[in-house]
Amino acid sequence: MDIARIAVHESVAKACPLEAMVAALQGPDVRVETVGDDASFDASDCVVTFSPREAFLDAAWVHGIRAGYDEFDVDAYEAAGTVLTNSTGIHGDTVPETVVGYLTAFARRLHVYRDRQRDNDWTQEPYDAPFTLTGEQVCVVGLGTIGQGVADRTDALGMDVVGVRRSGDPAENVERVYTPDELDAAVADARFVVLCCPLTEETEGMVDAALLAQMRADSYLVNVARGPVVVEDALLNALDTGTIAGAALDAHWAEPLPDDHPLWNHESAIVTPHVAAATSRYHEDIAALVRENVERATRGESLRNRVA
Ligand code: NDP
Ligand code: 7N6
């Protein structure tokens, strides 16, 4: 594959400044430029993009700047013979650090005190509300780049770590790995269930009323995966009725989360606007992946992170 141009689609601006991405992608042998929805593509183009567009199927290769590629029609890429690569591998620090933040906030009640600070309110939480992460169990669903990062950090904090993945293969710092058909058992003893899996036909709606009912009443759900992995009504009901103690959500069913969504004002919810992966070096991490693959393409080697 001979790449003459890297076309940076304007949707990249959802994750980082376009100019920063263009500058980071510069190299000796390719032209790098920004393109909008009116652009056309040919077999010497690599498109770097946040969102899919049908016109990209005319390019040689499309690189999605997210780990999740659920919005891309993989079959259409295969039918068109267009290579599709994703950005898994670069979120092993950012998202796990955010997850540790959610867990610490819930255990040490930081989210409650931040809310009270706005009203100069000195009220302390009840004696039995705070707890320590040390000694609590966390169930990490999906043990890839992000899940492993969560497992490493929570293990280092003294937590008991269990995990779930299709292969069931052991993972470092995870005491027991379950398969998806054992999900009920995997979540049953956990104080925290952290979703780090992709959105697929298998995972859509995986966290439903029945699974939430299997979770402990004092447990917390963390979703840094994709909104539809969780059944929205089931979660809202579980929070309202005390089936679980709370939830931290970075990934939502509709983004932005609508103004009138009940989660905004839910005391036991932490809502972040899909920023668990945010970092001021996002453009550099993506550019390193793309530049490596341009070199591989030039040498006729297979591309890293190829998903179609
Ligand atoms: P990886 O591909 O590295 O890991 C995905 C993991 O999920 C693998 O361990 C895989 O293992 C497992 N998995 C797949 N299907 C299932 C299933 N049915 N049940 C349980 N585990 C499953 O991806 P990343 O860790 O880089 O990213 C994971 C997801 O997180 C992304 O797809 C994206 O949706 C989301 N994400 C969100 C971000 C944010 O900003 N909030 C940032 C980056 C990613 P196996 O194949 O053995 O099942
Ligand atoms: C954008 C990260 C992913 O899948 O959802 C995230 O990688 C997007 C900063």
TrEMBL record:
PROSITE patterns: D_2_HYDROXYACID_DH_3 (PS00671). Its EC number is 1.1.1.95. Residues 61-307 form the D-isomer specific 2-hydroxyacid dehydrogenase catalytic domain. InterPro entries: D-isomer_2_OHA_DH_cat_dom, D-isomer_DH_CS, D-isomer_DH_NAD-bd, Dhydh_Halo, NAD(P)-bd_dom_sf. One of its GO terms (molecular function) is phosphoglycerate dehydrogenase activity. Belongs to the D-isomer specific 2-hydroxyacid dehydrogenase family. PANTHER family: 2-HACID_DH_C DOMAIN-CONTAINING PROTEIN, D-ISOMER SPECIFIC 2-HYDROXYACID DEHYDROGENASE NAD-BINDING DOMAIN-CONTAINING PROTEIN. This is D-2-hydroxyacid dehydrogenase. It comes from Haloarcula marismortui (strain ATCC 43049 / DSM 3752 / JCM 8966 / VKM B-1809) (Halobacterium marismortui). The lineage of its organism: Archaea, Methanobacteriati, Methanobacteriota, Stenosarchaea group, Halobacteria. The gene is serA5.
